[in-house]
Amino acid sequence: MTDKPLTRKSRPLSPERGAGRIARNRMRIAWMYYVEGLTQNEIADRLGIGRVTVVRNINEAIRQREVKIWIEGEVSECFELEAQLKQAFGFKEAVVVPEPVMPENVTKAIGAAAGMHVSDTLADDMTVGVGWGATLYESLATLAPRELENVQVISLLGGIVQARKFNPAEFAWQFARMMGADCYLFQAPAVVDSPETREALIERCGLRDIFRRAERLDMALLSVGTLAPSATAFRFNLISDEERASLLKMGAVGDLLFNFYDRDGHLVGHPVNQRVMSLPIAQLRSVPLRVIASGGNDKVESLLGAIRLIGCNVLITNEATARELLIRKG
Q: In the prediction, which pLDDT does 178 show?
């Protein structure tokens, strides 16, 4: 018995065509909801689908960054905190986001604000250095693609093999792609085995060009890490448990580009700081716009140290962290 040949009507779609149709339907639903202002029930009725399907497609459109939500206007409490932060720390700009209902969303909220701030700040002929981390990754959701001329994006830290989603190189490339910018990656591990290896990679493997380009940075977009066991540096064994213990003993409270520092903003005299493949902290201090986007109850100490470490002049954080920073600043 022979198989019945497939007709055009019965022939299955190729995966590419099927995926394209799903994306188009998703965008149609998102358009009807956000642009035309139809309710989820109205969309379901018009398209002959269930309301659950509509909700799922709207959420997926946001997750795929096909929809970007911007909120204009100021929350009065946040506006007052911004003014207090600027006065207390001498910031050029401070952005404070409303405290999220669910604490686990603080990273997403700060990241969204960071994306909006950078979109408003970028201009032609700018060179931007970027760090990495979950907060900065969330900024991609609100980065507004713009037609800018001669913009360059430089990754300020080597890569991490295990953490693809938050990898410094991956973030820099995504950021540059959305801005239509040229991207320059720090093609080396984030942490190497010795100062000698670090120097050899810089001098013999073409990394010196990254340092030269970074001399022309107009903005550095950074986040900070803590010394908690769950922090990326320790979760992916870039720094050993023994090194973590000795860093804590030396008074380290956080890291910026894997450079570990104390509460007063001084790099600790630990060997790991000699093995980091990143732009030197001294070079960061000369960048005109030094932006830190970070927050949460566990980040207050590390933020205080990072602000002092690089002379941060633009801070993006959440309400509770802003209040605690002001209290501890005195």
A: 86
